[in-house]
Every structure is written in structure tokens, then in C-alpha cells.
Amino acid sequence: MTFETVLRVYRTTMKALLVALIAVLLGVMTLQIVMRYGFNGSLIWAEELCRYLLIWVSLLAGSLAYERGEIAAVTLLRDALPRRGALCLATLANLAAAVLCGVLVHYGLRYAALVGAQPIPALRFLFQDSFGWAAWTVPPVYWVYVALPLGMGLLGLRLLLDAGRYGLLLKRGGSVDDLYGGAPAELPE
């Protein structure tokens, strides 16, 4: 299995997961609006679920956004450097960003473990207080907080893979043009 095949499977799986999460988010939001304005009542768990789904979607989509070049970048220095220097800068920038992602994974996991045992507030109210269900039936906030280390881990892995690819380009005598198909990326007008 080649690297490109693994990336293609990853992209397809991640896109399907993100579409499913966004569909659930849209469905719950629509249901909440209908309940609130159509039936003059609301679901106590809907807004909290939408907030958590939005967190997951945002953090999981980060690596796909990076891959597509949709993350904000300051290219002033890169564009001012010679082509090989720009490739060196891109490699160093990816390595530095990957280190930052690693720090966020480490502390994100520590934080999730530290406070993650608490129940999700709206679900605790719904399951325990309203229906008298056992405490173990309420999902912990760990599943919300673990989105950060997972999303940053995926982004960090992608940054490291690209840094390795940039390093190979440098070794083979490539330049920054090889990254962008012949010309550095331009800002949209």
C-alpha cells in the first residue's frame, strides 16, 4: 500500500465522518428551531450537543483544511526568499507547527484526563435528575475534551509527513515551486 493510497483512504474516511457529523449538527439545530418556534418548547440537550459537534468538526477538519491550503498563512518571508530557501523555511515551519501540535496533544490529553470524568451537564440533568437514571449512563466530558488532542495529533502527523516530503525535495535539488505546481500560492483578490 503506497503513501498516496493511505492518504486517499484517510481523506475519504475523514470527509465521510465530517459530513455525518455536520448532518447530525444540522438535523439537531433544525429540530431545536422547530421545537422552539413551532411548539413553544425546546430540547435541553440540543444546544449543548450542537456545541460539542461543532468542536469536533472544527478540530477534525483542521488536517484537511491544511492539506487544501485553507489555513491562514503569512507568506511574505517565504515569497522574499530564493526558491530553495523558501523550501527550507516551509520545512522548518512545518516542523515547528508539528512540535506545537505535539504540545497541544500532550496537554490536551492531560486536561481531558484531569476533568474528563465530569458528566456532560445537560445530559446529567436529563438522565439523572429528570429520569433518575444511574450516573454511569451519562457520558463524561472527556469525549468532548479529547477532540483537541485527536485533531492536533492528526494535523501534527500531516505536518510531519509534509516536512519529510519537503526534506526529500531539498535533497533532490527541488525548490518551493515543486510544492505549488510551478508558482508560489497567490492571495485571492
UniProtKB/TrEMBL annotation:
Pfam families per UniProt: DctQ
Membrane topology classification: Multi-pass membrane protein
Organism: Tistlia consotensis USBA 355
Residue ranges of every copy of the Tripartite ATP-independent periplasmic transporters DctQ component domain listed in the record: 26-162
Record-annotated membrane-spanning stretches: 16-37, 49-66, 87-109, 142-161
Protein name: TRAP transporter small permease protein
Location of this chain's protein in the cell: Cell inner membrane
Predominant location category: membrane
Gene Ontology biological-process annotations: C4-dicarboxylate transport
Function: Part of the tripartite ATP-independent periplasmic (TRAP) transport system.
UniProt key word Hydrolase: no
One annotated GO molecular function: transmembrane transporter activity
Signal peptide positions (record): none
GO CC entries: plasma membrane
Keywords per UniProt: Cell inner membrane, Cell membrane, Membrane, Transmembrane, Transmembrane helix, Transport
Family of the protein in this entry: Belongs to the TRAP transporter small permease family.
Assembly mode: The complex comprises the extracytoplasmic solute receptor protein and the two transmembrane proteins.
Keyword Transport recorded: yes
